[in-house]
Design brief:
By secondary structure, the chain is an alpha/beta fold. The protein has a single domain, classed as 3-Layer(aba) Sandwich (Rossmann fold), CATH 3.40.50.150. Helix content is 39%, strand content 23%. The protein is built from 9 helices and 7 strands, in the order ααααβαβαββαβααββ. A 7-stranded mixed sheet has the order 3-2-1-4-5-7-6. Helix 5 links the parallel strand 1 and strand 2. It is globular and about 45 Å long. The N and C termini lie far apart (43 Å).
């Protein structure tokens, strides 16, 4: 936790407080351990669904501050990462000596070269037309047996109460949709295989983590 605080406290001039909110930085550093636990629990669920192997080539789309990159670097053969603000993730990559390849555009990845794409709490930030274009590109970049793992907030009544109690009232304008709508949109291109519900297996659910397979 100390190392994370040190990393995220470093100044990046062009990243505003609103950008940091969108990257969920206040949640990872929150005083309430339950909120921090929930943020990490998402990555635990993603890791279980991913089942990474050394033979796999993986892209984390919207890697944020890079918290899941050490696990991907340890488990997978080749790891790509992309984000609007990759500075924190690049600093983490350098500090830990990771072998993550950062890209500026998905065109840098060959078609049908990826085994897995991970998009952890990022697709809800996209407008509908932008989301549709990215899903089309994901399908192009994945192998025929490739998979897509997505997590996102339900934005239900309990979630909104939790946002208020956590001190984030008035934030979240960067969420253009919720995970249920994402599932519907993604299912038009991919086949839904498994879903994890968080924080527990019974409602109310705050997040869903879903594994999709590329449709042939």
């Amino acid at each position: 936790m100390r190392e994370l605080k040190d990393l995220l406290s470093e100044d990046v001039p062009h990243i505003s407080n609103h950008d940091k909110d969108e990257m969920a930085i206040p949640s990872y550093l929150h005083w309430n351990p339950l909120i921090r636990w929930l943020m990490w629990r998402r990555y635990e669920a993603i890791a279980q669904l991913a089942g990474c192997l050394k033979a796999m080539t993986v892209l984390e789309f919207g890697c944020g501050v890079g918290l899941f990159l050490p696990e991907l670097n340890r488990q997978c053969g080749q790891v790509y990462a992309i984000d609007r603000f990759p500075e924190f993730a690049k600093r983490l990559n350098q500090k830990l000596g990771l072998n993550v390849h950062f890209i500026d555009d998905l065109s840098e990845v060959l078609d049908q070269s990826l085994d897995l794409i991970i998009a952890a709490d990022v697709l809800e930030h996209l407008e509908a037309d932008e989301l549709a274009q990215y899903l089309k590109t994901f399908a192009q970049k994945l192998r025929r047996s490739g998979r897509l793992i997505v997590s996102g907030p339900t934005e239900n009544f309990v979630y909104k109460i939790g946002r208020f109690l956590a001190g984030f009232s008035g934030k979240g304008d960067y969420h253009h949709t919720n995970v249920n709508h994402l599932i519907d949109a993604i299912s038009q291109t991919f086949e839904l295989r498994r879903t994890y519900y968080l924080p527990f297996r019974f409602p109310p659910f705050l997040f869903k983590v879903c594994e999709f397979k590329r449709s042939l």
